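fyi for ur records
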Amino acid sequence: MRTDSSPGTLPAREHLPAGDAGTPVLDVVIPVYNEEKDLQPCVRRLHAHLTRTFPYAFRITIADNASTDTTPLVAARLEAEIPEVVNFRLEQKGRGRALRTVWSASEAPILAYMDVDLSTDLNALLPLVAPLISGHSDLAIGSRLARASRVVRGPKREFISRAYNLILRGSLQARFSDAQCGFKAIRRDVAQVLLPLVEDTGWFFDTEMLVLAERAGLRIHEVPVDWVDDPDSTVHIVKTATDDLRGVWRVGRALAGGSLPLDRLTRPFGDDPRDRELTDVPKGLARQLVGFCVVGGLSTLFYLLLYGVFRQFSGSQVANALALLVSAVANTAANRRLTFGVRGRGGAVRHQAQGLVVFGIGLALTSGSLAALDAASDSPAHSTELAVLIAANLAATVLRFLLFRAWVFPDREETDAAPTVSATRLPPSPAYGTTPPHGTTAAHRTTAPYAPLPQRPVPYQQPYQPHPTTQVRAGEAADGSWRDATVRLQPVRPHDTDPGDPR
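which gave:
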């Protein structure tokens, strides 16, 4: 899957302008399950901190995951007493499910969440969301494993956390340092496109979201945090670890198979308007050169090995042709997948046919070199033949790369039609993603900047009104059409539970 040259569906990041508006800038979600004891002090402490330190309007959303104690009553009382607090009830368990549901329905441009125990020091909240507001980053996470972090927790949790992150680095090549810290934020325009790709509904939700975002080239900002372990945590470590390992296997298999449309998440080259006007800048050239050189070096060794084998029972020309043919097929397949990022079987036969044409050009070059050597010397030494072939293959390699890049595997952006590129963009909304009316087409959607950021002391006054259905922005399909303008979340009956998620 090619993610370096696709225009993607995300526009360039921009600083959200300051001003007066009625929509909260930040929506902090607190997922809870049977937290009747900790919920009220957590919400009041968070509200007091945001009132004192956060310069824009905000909202605190309590996402109740099917609690069976008095948590719903506590949440309803907090909603009635504090204007900036709303309560959202789900009848199914799963932290990932709660975050996906509330984030999808929220109209705030910056979405965050934190654990109800407030293990993370709240002084890191403003540094967490500031890069998202400024347009510098797409996601932000708190890291307990950064050098500047100060963490108080037992050796067992320390070992589990570090071992898990080592597994992520070794299996999924993750570069972020802490996937499990319950202190994260994301821009709403990114969440609209990223969340439909995340399958997990439990504790692995965070990790899957971060891995996909990182693989797509999105910018993840890490904030060192001060963190104190909650000894009364209800997380089942063994069950959670088992589910996480299953999630690692599932995501790794999907990434290896190229089944995830990560090109939908790519940003345009550069955020400066001058960069967006550049049309002749080769994209991904450096990475392709490195990949091609590695594949080419291995192919050359493979070719020389085959030539030495075939030369034992045939002449130099026949041995060269056979070795070059076999190595050319392997070279085309390796470059197709590793250098130019083409996944799947679509077009494989055509690519191999074009690769054979390139092979013919290389064969003419190397065979001509051998013919010239035979004309110059009646019986050249075997080492001389190899030296001539190496020089000829280097010249053929340069020509092969140019033909591969320009003809066999051309840049998708150059071959795709222009209407397709524009149709795949997710149009920003002047009201932070107001759901477009049914029947709206791509031609009617226009690009508009974010509305100005509301600043305090203008609070969010509109109380939360529960409705029979909640409209959720589902985004666009890869072909530019609206896959489903809205997704309606129907009320879940009490007996509708998810047996696969016991949390």
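The CA atoms of residues 204 and 274 lie 40 Å apart. thats all i got for now
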